[in-house]
Structures are given as structure tokens and as C-alpha cells.
Amino acid sequence: EIVLTQSPATLSLSPGERATLSCRANQSVSNFLAWYRQKPGQSPRLLIYDTSNRATGIPSRFSGSGSGTDFTLTISSLEPEDFAIYYCHQRSTWPPKDIFGRGTRLDIK
Amino acid sequence: EVQLVESGGGLVKPGGSLRLSCAASGFIFSDYNMNWVRQAPGKGLEWVSSISSGHSIYYADSVQGRFTISRDNAKNSLYLQMNDLRDDDSALYYCTKDAWVAAHFFDHWGQGSLVTVSS
User: Which member of B35, B44, B111 has the closest CB to residue A87?
Assistant: First the structure.
């Protein structure tokens, strides 16, 4: 069974800084890896799909990369609205199920 | 504009039942795989169940045998029948939509329906 481990659990940075969030799988997975941002009190919002594709309306400061077992979400210059929780997500084909990482909380330093 | 609106949540005793609904609009509902994802208070996201456009159905191990997902394409609606509810089923339940056929991610989420299981 696929397990996604996100690190760090909490990341404290200042606006304007660069953020690097990691999502590691316990076995090699397809490149169908997505990232979501969840602001307090809101539903998650899709940021990145298929490892590196930005979703509609997502600014260019968000980028995704990786392959195999290691994936990264990078935010090049943090805006105030980016301080939130980020989840990675992968869909396994067998057994058919969706898996989420436990999230990385991005806090204002 | 895509909209997913959940309803049907509430307070229920352990062992009780509840039926969640998700009213969809802004897209051709019958063409898309739909899902339920839940989030316990202060916790992360947990996938619950999926139903494909062709009515293939999948469940998380934690709800298998207790929850039933269904859809009514004529009513543009998704449902989750929850039986034998437990304390750890308490969560905000989101309705989500796959982005397209054979997509592996959710492009839209509802606002959620809160289920509280407590005696």
C-alpha cells in the first residue's frame, strides 16, 4: 500500500521567501501526483496536477517537480495568502484508492 | 461555473445512520467520476469513496461495509449513505469531482457537510 510522507510537518517562513515542500512515497508511483492548498476555514484548492502542471488560475510562483518516490512543491516568493496547509495526493490504480499525505503547515515566521 | 453543494450532515448517535447529498451544477454530471473525502476536526484529508461515470465503486477500508456511495445522474446528485456510524466517522465530508475522464486528481471541492457522531 502506498503511503505519502510530507515534510516538514511545519515550515515557518517570511513573506517573500522561497518555500520547498516535500512529498515522498514508500514505493515508486506514477507521475499522477497532485498538490492542494487549504486555507483556514476553507475547502482545499487544487494547485498542481500530474506532478508539474499548474491548475487553472494558479500563479506562476507555484511549481511542482519530481518523479519516482520524491516530489516537491516550490513556492518561489511567499504571499500572505500562501500561509496555509498543503497536501499531496496520489491515486493508486490497484487497489483503487486515493491517498493523501498528512500535510505541511506553512506558518508566518 | 462548477458548484458542489453538500447537505444532510448533523448530529447522530453511535450506531446511527445518516445520508449525505451533493448537488452538482455547471458541468455534465454523468460524464465525471465523483468522490467523497472527509476531514476530522483539526486533522488531514482522508479519501472515503469514489463512483465512476460508469458506476464502478470503491471504498476506503475504514468504511467498507458500512457506507454506500451512489449517484443519480437525472438529478445531478451524489449520495453517501452512512450506517453503523462510529465516533471516528465525525468529520467534515467533502464532495469532490475528478477533473476529467481518467484524471487522477480533484479539480473541484464542495464546502463540506459536518457529521458529528456522539452519544
Answer: B44
